[in-house]
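[Meeting: bench + compute handoff]

Bench side (C.D.) handed over the final construct sequence. Compute side (W.E.) agreed to return the predicted structure before the next meeting so the bench team could plan truncations. Sequence as handed over:
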Amino acid sequence: MAERRFGVGYALAPKKQQSFIQDSLVSLAKSHGVDLVRIDEDRPLADQGPFDCVLHKLYGVDWRQQLEDFRAVNPNAVIIDSPEAIERLHNRISMLQVVSELKIEDRSETFGIPKQIVIYDKETLLDRPAWEGLKFPIIAKPLVADGSAKSHKMALVFNHDSLNSLKPPIVLQEFVNHGGVIFKVYVVGEYVKCVKRKSLPDVSEEEKVGSLEGLLSFSQVSNLATNERTDDKYYKKMHLDETEMPPQSLLIEIAKGLRRAMKLHLFNFDVIRDARFGNRYLIIDINYFPGYAKMPGYEKIMTDFFCDIMHKKERDAEKVLEENDDNGVDGLGCEKGVRKLVSNSCGSDGEDGVLPVSPIGREEEKPIQV
């Protein structure tokens, strides 16, 4: 009996495509019944496929319209993820607001976000009373977080005089000492993986008061661009390898809450441990569709994710059929119990599974949401 395969069309910027769509991923996915197919950006998306799932990281009005057109003629296809949900992460204020909405109880650890405010104009930036709740040093970040080079231009600011060189709209965020280590938590559906990376070194009280450099630029919050303490000797002193990871159970609960609140499946969030309180964790950034290829064994993680999507899609299709049966209706006039099952290699540990094939006609399909 023919194998039921699952087509995933991907639309990614060239740099993202190069890092993510590696031969090892394509091969493993194919062996599990998942075919990864590049979407041609020079052709209308609605004319391509058929795709069971569209995986994308493109932006703009035209791309949004193409997704809408595709959805109109393929209502049963899964789109990972919706542009509306992704858009929330393009604003550094709205991206972290969701953290305060999470409810996780009965834990000894606490979590939250650093104090921060958004500045829209130069006048407010230079008006001390407007943001006196923040104490130096502070991190200045562009309000827009769209992955562009401009959105990564951040600075560590030590005094008020240095604010004049900043260009609003920006977010001013309290800098919290965290031992020079940042925890990057990758989320792929229900899978959660935490890794630790070098981050900004702690700032002593003496440095806060007597820093000669009023403003220190760096390309990303986890990597300094210029500082005498970025060498390996400093970080060896910080004992990066010995740094204790946050409790995995806490990270899983936070990831689950974020996934549900944001309605996203592919993202990561950056966490630091507040040096003032050993069990206090602060989320400082959330990114959509990060560099998963940096994770060891990312091929299996992503393949399992595609398989999970496929299983849910098939289950939902079967549920529709069962509901029709309960109402005495069958879209193809088939008798109850006559539906065929075909084998599919999409399953845990590489074992063959049995998945139902939906015989629903296109005009009777219902949208699948994951």
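W.E. noted at the follow-up: Residues 219-231, 329-345, 347-370 have pLDDT under 50 and may be disordered. C.D. will use this when planning the next construct.
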